[in-house]
Design goal:
Layout: H1 8-20, E1 26-32, H2 44-48, E2 53-58, H3 65-77, E3 82-85, H4 93-103, H5 105-113, E4 121-127, H6 133-141, E5 159-164, E6 167-171, H7 183-192, H8 202-216, H9 218-224, H10 234-244, H11 256-268, H12 280-287
Parallel strand pairs: 1-2, 1-4, 2-3, 4-6
Antiparallel strand pairs: 5-6
Helix pairs in contact: 8-9, 8-10, 8-11, 10-11
Protein name: Ribosome biogenesis GTPase A
Pfam family, one: MMR_HSR1
Family: Belongs to the TRAFAC class YlqF/YawG GTPase family. MTG1 subfamily.
Length: 288
């Protein structure tokens, strides 16, 4: 599958970030903890340049704990402050607030020395669609202030949101980049719901996910769908899942689209277990 999705509003978002960056003290970039490589927009670092940045590994509760530790060690060695976060429960909130204040400490000291009136720390939140920016903001504010949805591309326009007396947030819509150089990146983004299902072949996407899970987490598939034999082609596994879940139409025809929706939903909600599809070693392998 060759996947790309770059609607017009994403180009506008890129300009929005550039034009308002001068107002910002700290940038928070959200990654999906299950796919830290694929969910990192390669254009963001170029745009924000030397602005202090905090990496938030959202949905870490859905990720493989052993691989998450590898990622935290990896970022630590690079001198990057990476914080595991669950935007739905708010777990990781105190660590994030402390990181924001530490990242802006130098800027605040400069203002103090100049005798300027202290203002709230200005934070910009950026990330790909459906990575949890709006949910993060709602947890920070403590109420629903940013529009949320389970479809990528829901947040529109720009908005400053006061979350504490000393912190203001600048929210931006989700932004991808014009072309994925690696086919796996597009697939991983599609698996996790960062690309609209409506533009994809869901049946084919499910087949690709099953192939990936057979390679990385075969036991998760086996246990979730009561599979006896995994020594089969991915299509046969998909059909076995369909039979076990009753996805059979009149006349004994297998409903592949129904199976696809079940498997993708189970993966996205963590019902297939704690899964991470990328490791730091993948960065080194791709560079070779």
């Amino acid at each position: 599958m060759n996947i790309n999705w770059y609607p017009g509003h994403m180009k506008k978002t890129k300009e929005l970030i550039k034009n308002n960056l001068k107002l910002v003290d700290v940038v928070i970039e959200l990654y999906d903890a299950r796919i830290p490589i694929s969910s990192k927009n390669p254009e963001i670092d170029k745009i924000i340049s030397n602005k202090p940045k905090i990496v938030v590994l959202n949905k870490y509760d859905l990720s493989d704990p052993k691989i998450l530790k590898k990622w935290l060690d990896y970022y630590s060695k690079l001198g990057i402050n990476a914080i595991p976060f669950n935007a739905l429960s708010g777990e990781g909130m105190n660590n994030l607030l402390n990181a924001i204040k530490n990242a802006a400490k130098d800027k605040i000291e400069i203002l103090k020395k100049k005798g300027r009136k202290l203002r709230p720390i200005r934070v910009m939140i950026v990330g790909i669609p459906n990575v949890g920016k709006s949910s993060l903001i709602n947890k920070l504010v403590g109420k629903k202030s940013a529009k949320t949805g389970n479809k990528p591309g829901v947040t529109r326009g720009k908005q400053w949101i006061r979350i504490r007396k000393d912190i203001e947030l600048f929210d931006t819509p989700g932004i991808l980049w014009p072309k994925f150089d690696d086919e796996k990146v597009g697939l991983n983004l599609a698996f996790t719901g960062s690309i609209r299902d409506e533009i994809l072949d869901i049946d084919e996407l499910c087949l690709e996910l099953i192939k990936t899970l057979l390679e990385k987490y075969p036991n998760n598939l086996k246990e979730r769908y009561n599979l006896d034999n995994l020594n089969k082609e991915a299509l046969e596994i998909m059909e076995d899942i369909g039979r076990n879940r009753g996805c059979i139409s009149a006349g004994g025809i297998i409903d592949y689209t129904r199976i696809a929706n079940i498997v993708l939903d189970d993966f996205r909600k963590g019902k297939l277990g704690k899964i991470t599809l990328e490791t730091p070693e993948d960065i080194n392998n791709s560079a070779e």
